[in-house]
């Protein structure tokens, strides 16, 4: 029942947890000594089959192309009572993969991907950017509130981003409530999209949520685990917010199985959640490889808390390119200090500093994958499982060229706050757009890692 990855004997591996060997406090040494000795590689420590219970493993196994085709085939049969409305939501960080891989513009990639999915029998194809709008806006508001309460509440600051399921799973299963209490309660874009599709859209279409089969196309396998969380399930309708997650690479596998090339697919405009409207050109949020929580929250906090209008953000790389900080100065004093920590070496070092009481940051955008979401293990990988660096460089170029749209300027979002969520400060906003994170006590019979 130990982690299947633990017996890595190559001491020359630079990605092992050498960063943890210099513990100078007994608490940190006790917690991480076994980890260091076991040679668990930080790139391996999430979502391997030994990190999951048997039940989780069985449910994750169902989130594959076979389940997708099972629903498609069910819809082709005569028993209409069992038919499902098939909706697919595509993450913004997946589109550059399709664009770079097939040498298309990002707008062409979105429309051709939509055309391909609809040719299979999918009814609706959505862009999850609107869900990220909600997630960023709620994260902005929560940070300002936490900052204002920082002297009254011990765990108000720092605040950690909550969009990465790999980081969330690690925090809940391995770290203590000392860490989980700092995680922003705003749902990830994936799960907010689930609420939008199974809640708002289902009501617009006069459908019961369980009559919709909702698939998310994402860059990362950990999104499959996120979809299984109990708090993302509506017991009343026996329906999860997200029924199935397919990685970008799995969609390409379907294309290969069907012997279809993206360049041969007819372009079809992406659907929107609103009546018969269609999406326009692809837009993104600030941030080079992710949804840009750091940049949006930083600019919002500078304006709300200090009356400063920040136009451009300057990143300062620290120990490596995946750990960078941003600061705001006013009257010669540093009033905001944010960081981006990508990859588990940086996350481990960040947690150690927090435990030692040497943590200087007010907010950290935490992502499990080195290089951020574009480098998710579900896309841009070579056949031997290593990052395809040439393709990744193309993807970054495609992504940074996409126009930025501020969440505050999305009129649909503002209207939905009033018409669907009953105002920005309503209980429905808390119930629909937020969740809670806490340390998980693992049973001795589960197949989880023994740290």
TrEMBL record:
<dbReference type="InterPro" id="IPR050340">
    <property type="entry name" value="Cytosolic_Fe-S_CAF"/>
</dbReference>
<dbReference type="GO" id="GO:0005634">
    <property type="term" value="C:nucleus"/>
</dbReference>
<dbReference type="Pfam" id="PF02906">
    <property type="entry name" value="Fe_hyd_lg_C"/>
</dbReference>
<feature type="domain" description="Iron hydrogenase small subunit">
    <location>
        <begin position="385"/>
        <end position="441"/>
    </location>
</feature>
<comment type="similarity">
    <text>Belongs to the NARF family.</text>
</comment>
<feature type="compositionally biased region" description="Polar residues">
    <location>
        <begin position="12"/>
        <end position="24"/>
    </location>
</feature>
<protein>
    <recommendedName>
        <fullName>Nuclear prelamin A recognition factor</fullName>
    </recommendedName>
</protein>
<keyword id="KW-0539">Nucleus</keyword>
<dbReference type="InterPro" id="IPR009016">
    <property type="entry name" value="Fe_hydrogenase"/>
</dbReference>
<dbReference type="Pfam" id="PF02256">
    <property type="entry name" value="Fe_hyd_SSU"/>
</dbReference>
<comment type="subunit">
    <text>Interacts with LMNA and binds to the farnesylated C-terminal domain.</text>
</comment>
<feature type="compositionally biased region" description="Basic and acidic residues">
    <location>
        <begin position="1"/>
        <end position="11"/>
    </location>
</feature>
<keyword id="KW-0597">Phosphoprotein</keyword>
<dbReference type="InterPro" id="IPR003149">
    <property type="entry name" value="Fe_hydrogenase_ssu"/>
</dbReference>
<dbReference type="InterPro" id="IPR004108">
    <property type="entry name" value="Fe_hydrogenase_lsu_C"/>
</dbReference>
<feature type="region of interest" description="Disordered">
    <location>
        <begin position="1"/>
        <end position="28"/>
    </location>
</feature>
